[in-house]
Amino acid sequence: MWCSMSKKQGKGIRMPYERRKAMYGYGFISIWLIGTILWFLIPLFESLCYCFMDNQTLKPDVGGMKKEWLGFANWEWLDNFRYAFAADPSYKQSLVEVLKDTALTTPMILIFSLFIAVILNQEFKGRGFARAIFFLPVIIATGPVYNIINGDMGTTGVDSGAQFTTLFETDIVDELLAFLGVMNISEGLSEIINTVTTDIFGLVWSSGIQILIFLAALQNIPVSAKEAASMEGATAWEYFWKITLPYVSPMILANFIYTVIDSFTKTDNAVMERVLTKQLEWDYAYAAAMAWSYFAIVMIVVGIVTLIVNKFIFYEVE
Asked: 14, 36, 109, 288: which could form a disulfide with 50 (CB 3.0–4.6 Å)?
């Protein structure tokens, strides 16, 4: 009797193979899940709470932070946001600067990435080496490496008075336009051209992921489409606009979203520098309010532009 009961219990605890595989998966991701909750979601929620606390009171204290919530009377709980947009000119100026730079550089990055991807998709000797060169910045794209190559030695621990010049930093275009008298026509035009052409190396450095995504899209173009275009006698120009661009258009949207978010989250842009500066000054509540406002603005911009760009995207219907 006891033996039969033990056999039944032994059979009862056996787990189906599919469920065991699922448990193995949960076991593998459990460490990541615990880390995400402890070191991402909880700090994220805490930073959101900081936005509605008194900035003068929120300071480090024994055993944690000294916290004091803002009141609800007269909308006092929005004081940190009011100060960011109404009383702090540096934050508004930095925000406008980042939005303008992103609006200028994002189309340049997308056009350059698509252009390079089309070239790298062709058959030529050394194609693998060329692809590795354009993807190399993604592997070594650390702050110190980029600053050294770009000539910014002061932020790498080197004496700020040291002189370091590279071929990547050049104002040849600026000097040429000044020589031709174009720069004297319009100050706004001068600023736009200067912004786009000065940091050419930065544009190339930021295009590695986009080139890779465009390459994947180009390689997925059906062979039948290429053969049909060839039989119809389509030129390379017609092939690009009628075949290549429609097939890669979904990746244009994906690259656009990636480029915009990457530009907005760079620690060296004006808004991020402002947030980090206030954080170092122990203005945690105000820094949190600026960061969350910035996050909301970024999401709104990405959402609006996504809705607009999505109307011009070709989706293949099977």
From this structure: 288
- Counting DSSP H helices and E strands in the chain, the numbers are 16, 2
pLDDT digits (tens, 9 = 90+) for 256-310: 888 888 888 887 788 888 888 888 888 899 999 999 999 999 899 888 888 888 8
Beta strands in 58-163 (DSSP E): 59-61, 64-66
pLDDT tens digits, one per residue of 62-116: 777 888 888 888 888 889 998 888 888 888 889 988 888 888 888 888 888 888 8
DSSP state of 156: G
Domains of the chain plus CATH, in order, are: 12-80 (no CATH), 81-150+199-310 (1.10.3720.10)
Nearest CA to 105 out of 210, 249, 187, 180 is that of: 210
Instruction: For residue 41, count other CB atoms closer than 10 A to its CB.
Output: 11
